[in-house]
Design a protein that fits this description.
The strands form five sheets. Strands 3, 4, 7, 15, 16 and 17 form a six-stranded mixed sheet that branches. A six-stranded mixed sheet has the order 8-18-14-9-13-12, covered by helices on one side. Strands 1-2 form a two-stranded antiparallel ribbon. The longest helix has 44 residues, at 2-45. The chain is built from nine helices and 18 strands. The protein has helices at residues 2-45, 72-76, 83-92, 103-106, 129-140, 215-220, 222-247, 279-288, 306-311; strands at residues 49-50, 70-71, 125-126, 151-155, 159-165, 197-203, 205-214, 264-266, 298-301, 313-316, 319-322, 337-338, 341-345, 358-361, 366-371, 376-380, 389-402, 421-424.
């Protein structure tokens, strides 16, 4: 009898061990699948608000909160309603505070290299995705942001190679870099021709904004800090983008149109004073703009030149006809077109009298690439620890240059080349 009892005990222990092994095996195989399914479901539901539907005949008590309702978008933000709340939690977990990371913070922790990933004091905290997306929109939606007007691409790698037609002339035998058609008599042999192709290579270059914030500011103004950090970072990234697209030198940054080989620079009028722009300048610039680009072209100007534009006239008999004013004169507002194209004051154009104080450009002929991750944003409490500051970092990778390798010789013309990027020479 005792032997039977011992046998049953042995059998039960073996079954428990076997059950644990089976459970572990199932979890190992199904865990990743369930995790992927959960992520896919969260992405599908992001931005939606799911609420419980009350059964017919039942009415919710006034003031009663539905415990089953949840905001999926809030879940995507790890429970944070505002960027300022996130920054406040980062500060509250700083070394010496004695506070452990909250559940919300644990969801967005990121460890520094070589340290433990679950210890907030050993690493930075990754900014929740929803707030990073909002920052990216602030940069792109800036009214004067030129990237909106460019031919945009995103890449998951570090560079992008684009095919292009190597066309520098539209004369016979040169269109598309070598294509030529013929009129033929009956029985005449056909002459083959082929285009010339080129490679346009763009490499991502990194730009960054680092903003330190004191513990006092984080303590006293957590809500206002969201607007402050977002504004200064997005404004600076936008400024750098626009400046590089106009004035960039290439080689570690985008190639700006003022330094591009395809730029056409129109000479000033003979004897033209240094601080002037005359109607002939505008007409000559318009004549050098490649005709298909005129429908997309804009005038970029420095605000210094606006009085000159207002005073421009075309001589008519003993009087003059205003060039820049609309039919209704100064009473019509706003007025911001010339030759039917928008006139946009920007701070990246040169001051009055220098090359680049006025630019006629078609940004669809400028190609730009960005990393498909957009802006990477992170915060660290270690860089300025001795100064009681948190450091917020925003990084963006971008490149750009004109599609055109050089200006274009037209099929018929007076020897003047054409381009989608035209500026006025300096007036010494």
């Amino acid at each position: 009898m005792p032997e039977t009892v011992e046998e049953e005990k042995t059998t039960k222990i073996t079954s428990a061990e076997l059950g644990e092994k089976i459970e572990a095996s199932v979890e190992a195989k199904m865990g990743p699948i369930l995790e992927d399914f959960t992520k896919t479901l969260d992405e599908s539901l992001k931005g939606l608000k799911v609420e419980k539907t009350e059964p017919e005949g039942e009415e919710k008590e006034p003031g009663k909160v539905d415990a089953t309702a949840h905001d999926v978008k809030a879940e995507a933000r790890c429970g944070y309603k505002a960027f300022g709340e996130f920054l406040h939690d980062v500060h509250s977990c700083s070394p010496g505070s004695g506070n452990a990371p909250t559940d919300r913070m644990a969801a967005v922790m990121k460890a520094a290299s070589g340290m433990g990933e679950n210890v907030g004091s050993d690493g930075g905290f990754l900014v929740p995705t929803d707030f990073v997306t909002a920052l990216w929109q602030r940069v792109i939606d800036t009214p004067e942001n030129l990237m909106n007007r460019t031919d945009q691409y995103t890449t998951s790698g570090n560079r992008m190679v684009l095919p292009a037609v190597a066309e520098t002339s539209r004369a016979d035998g040169a269109r598309a870099g070598g294509i030529q058609g013929y009129w033929l008599d009956e029985g005449t042999a056909k002459t083959p021709s082929q285009p010339a192709l080129a490679r346009l290579e763009l490499n991502l270059h990194k730009m960054a904004v680092v903003v330190p914030a004191t513990d006092e500011l984080l303590d006293d103004s957590a809500v206002a800090l969201e607007s402050f950090i977002t504004k200064v970072a997005s404004d600076e990234l936008s400024f750098m983008l626009n400046d590089s697209f106009i004035r960039g030198l290439g080689g570690g940054r985008p190639m700006g149109i003022l330094n591009a080989p395809c730029l056409v620079t129109v000479a000033a009028e003979a004897g033209q004073p240094i601080t002037t722009i005359v109607a002939e300048n505008i007409s000559n610039m318009w004549a050098r703009m490649w005709a298909p680009s005129r429908r997309n072209a804009v005038w970029l100007i420095n605000q210094d030149i606006e009085p000159e534009l207002d005073n421009m006239t075309i001589a008519v008999g003993t009087g003059g006809l205003p060039v820049y004013l609309p039919v209704g004169g100064y009473s019509v507002s706003p007025y911001s077109t010339m030759k039917g194209r928008p006139v946009i004051p920007v701070e990246w154009c040169s001051t009055l009298g220098a090359v680049g104080d006025i630019i006629l450009c078609d940004w669809s002929q400028y190609v730009s690439i960005t990393k498909n991750t957009g802006i990477e944003a992170a915060v660290s409490m270690h860089i300025r620890f001795l100064y009681d500051e948190q450091t917020f970092r925003f990084v963006m990778r971008v490149d750009g240059q004109p599609w055109w390798a050089t200006d274009l010789t037209p099929y018929q013309g007076a020897g003047n080349t054409l381009s989608p990027f035209v500026t006025l020479a300096g007036r010494p």
